[in-house]
Amino acid sequence: MPLNQKNKEIEQLKKENARLKAALNDSDFECQRLSLINNNLEIQLAEANRELETNIQVLQNLKNEIGDIVDKLKV
């Protein structure tokens, strides 16, 4: 194989390598971005669950109070 053709192939491989490295960097950046989004969503979910548990407790307390009032009114 002529030296000139080998040099062309080497240059082509270098370009392909650079393209793949750039794609890998882009993928790594996107992965980090999605990881941050996931962490934020996990925090929001935990907060929503805490609020939901609080609301459930409030509703259970109200249900008990209403039951007590209904019992008192029956007497």
Helicity, in percent? over 70%
User: Order of SSEs, N→C?
Assistant: H
Which regions have little confidence, pLDDT < 50, spanning 5+ residues?
Answer: none
SS class: mainly alpha
Compute the separation of the termini in Å.
106 Å
- Percent of sequence in beta strands: under 5%
How does this structure look, described?
By secondary structure, the protein is mainly alpha-helical. Helices cover 96% and strands 0% of the residues. The protein has one helix at residues 3-74. It is rod-shaped.
How do you describe this structure in short?
By secondary structure, the protein is mainly alpha-helical. It contains one helix and no strands.
Brief descriptors of the model:
75 residues; mainly alpha; single chain; rod-shaped
Topology overview:
Blueprint: H1 3-74
